[in-house]
């Protein structure tokens, strides 16, 4: 069984459908948009696969715990997790970033993902009776580039994800769990509209060595490779899906 958090749109949705095509049982989460979740379920059904949607507010620890308790009810062991849930705020100079904004973004992008890694490892660790498996964290090239004048707060949360990836990969390597991350660059997703600039990728395309924005499928294919046995000797590693930027 595979879990994809934030799986109702963008990179998460593409990952869910790629896994379904591979014949995997996939549980994915959504929060506000039930219609988007239903679209994913319908597409999975058309692919003759099995996907399950669970509503989760990742700002609440109780709901995260309830999610993993629900996973425990299924017959199949949890062997793959994609920590994709995350938010971004409107573009802003750091001079105008409030503490409330910081709390909101760290609560989802850092604390929730930390709890998901913890709960996944509790279930996947071979030393605790699990079957082992693979965890893929969705970071961002922003963790390296810093996103000045736009969202340094978001970039810093992805830096935290990078550190968690390195540390947990080393901690759980002998317990059958591989932990890696993808760092998408300028990808054509709804997240740019969330930050206040829907055409951001188009504006910055000339700064990309490949001179184009990326697709969600190009990111999800990297995620699926890291989840698979084809990457069995890969842990604590980052794949930059960024066109060279």
UniProtKB/TrEMBL annotation:
Listed Gene3D superfamilies: NAD(P)-binding Rossmann-like Domain
First-tier enzyme category under EC: oxidoreductase
Keyword field: Oxidoreductase
Entry's Gene Ontology molecular function annotations: glucose 1-dehydrogenase [NAD(P)+] activity
E.C. number(s) listed in UniProt: 1.1.1.47
Alphabetical list of InterPro entries matching this protein: NAD(P)-bd_dom_sf, SDR_fam
Domain of life, per lineage: Bacteria
Record PANTHER family: NADPH-DEPENDENT ALDEHYDE REDUCTASE-LIKE PROTEIN, CHLOROPLASTIC-RELATED (PTHR48107), RE15974P (PTHR48107:SF7)
Family designation: Belongs to the short-chain dehydrogenases/reductases (SDR) family.
Protein name (database record): NAD(P)-dependent oxidoreductase
Species per Swiss-Prot/TrEMBL record: Paraphotobacterium marinum
């Amino acid at each position: 069984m595979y879990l994809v958090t934030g799986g109702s749109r963008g990179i998460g949705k593409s990952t869910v459908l790629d896994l379904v095509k591979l014949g995997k049982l996939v549980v994915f989460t959504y929060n506000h948009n039930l219609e988007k979740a239903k679209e994913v379920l319908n597409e999975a059904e058309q692919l003759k696969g099995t996907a399950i949607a669970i509503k989760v507010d990742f700002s609440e620890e109780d709901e995260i715990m309830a999610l993993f308790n629900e996973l425990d009810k299924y017959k199949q062991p949890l062997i793959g997790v994609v920590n994709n849930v995350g938010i971004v705020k409107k573009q802003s100079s750091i001079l105008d970033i409030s503490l409330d904004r910081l709390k909101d973004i760290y609560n989802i992008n850092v604390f929730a993902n930390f709890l998901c890694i913890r709960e996944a490892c509790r279930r996947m660790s071979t030393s605790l009776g699990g079957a082992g498996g693979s965890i893929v964290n969705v970071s961002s090239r922003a963790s390296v580039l810093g996103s000045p004048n736009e969202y340094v707060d978001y970039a810093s949360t992805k830096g935290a994800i990078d550190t968690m990836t390195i540390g947990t990969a080393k901690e759980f390597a002998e317990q059958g769990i591989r932990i890696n991350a993808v760092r998408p660059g300028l990808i054509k997703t709804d997240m740019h509209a969330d930050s206040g600039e829907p055409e951001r990728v188009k504006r910055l395309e000339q700064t990309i060595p490949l001179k184009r924005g990326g697709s969600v499928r190009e990111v999800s294919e990297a995620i699926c490779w890291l989840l698979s046995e084809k990457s069995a000797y890969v842990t604590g590693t980052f794949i930059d899906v960024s066109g060279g930027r």
